[in-house]
Specification:
alpha+beta, 2 domains, 8-stranded mixed sheet, 5-stranded mixed sheet, globular, transmembrane, Vacuolar protein sorting-associated protein 62, membrane
Amino acid sequence: MKRTTFLFIRSCFYVLVFCNILVKSISISLLEDDPFIKLYEQEKGEYNSPPVTSPYDLNDENRSLKEKGKVPQYVVDSCPLVHLYTEEKYWPSDIAKYVNNFNITDGDSVAVFNKDKLTLSDLKPSYKYDLPNGSQGEISSEFTYLTSLDDFAKDPKWLLGSPPEYGTGHIRDGPAVLLVVDKGNGWVDAFWFYFYPFNLGPFIMGYGPWGNHVGDWEHSLVRFYKGEPRYVWMSAHGGGLAYKYSALEKVKKLRHINGKLTPESIYRPLIFSARGTHANYASVGQHAHDVPFFFMPLSDFTDRGPMWDPSLNFYGYTFDGDAFTPAGPKEQEYGASWIQFHGRWGDKKLPGRDPRQKWCPVQWKYIDGPTGPYYKHLDRLSLCPEFQWWNFWQACPSRRFIKKGEGLDAEKNDLVGDNCGVLLYKIRPRWLRGVFRLLMWRGVTCLLMDFFTG
């Protein structure tokens, strides 16, 4: 009798638990103010757009840019605003002045281009230089480095860059670089490149910094369809993240047309530059540094420090698969050969015997300088330029909501949060979808799916 009573009570308990889950699932699925469903419906039309093409496959029928060397106004209107870190030490810099402090050498530190003062127009795809036997050889710039004339470990003035002006966000000595690439069928990619004279690497367990290098190229990509911004991709070390343009936080700014201020206000997207590394993120706080999952000892940090407006000062070019065309007088003066410089924009990794060099089990203190815009996959069809080893299916989803930061400085609002529930919208009936949402929401499965799919 006692056993029968126990079994009956246990059965009733299971029934109550099941009914509770079912009721909650149905109530979740019937919510009328679910923001994800509304977003999902709004974005259905995007998938009916024509395909993005490579600039090398353009013809007179499918070109999106009809005039070479002209930067469309919609590109400037949608230029991201960059919040630099409050305690940043290495600010943006002018590449034209930066190169004055270097020689061009090969991997053995032998000069391949001799000039008292290097200029931007001296950067080329290849170089001819004199050999010891009296003959002349030619070397691809792929095997060259910009080697500094000063000891960069002593922080010469040119290595520090310039902070933005308070209020305007203008950097007089730190122009960005804008490459507008025709992707055909109404698509246009605007690559905003941000140059910093030095990359201060991360600290690991309080030791470091590791992975420092002279010269630092970061960039964001805004992809347009018929003049409307659709997507944004932002670089972070060897990878980055893609977003719907609508997902990013916006701020109201006065519009500039042909460099002149107008009384019209427009909304511009915000991105956040990490301390020292200058990696770009869409939110404030602590972010995993170049690893597939959050790893506390190796992190980037962002905050709402000084705001930089790259649209106020930039070198602009258009690219149609055939040539880079300067957009103004100063760009014509420097030419476009520097864009196709294949070498490193900073010193070669210091040898282990150099007293400035240090080593830890995963990284050296000073490593090679970076490659320039030519190696950032300007012809990409996907929003992502390349894929990490762990992204074995090479997916590059565009996130619908901002990926939140961690830590004490992180912010949480209606723009930031976890949202992998969008993956369940095709499940029918709705009550069954509600069951899955209840079981997965904020669970491990949801966390993993959100990370890999956006």
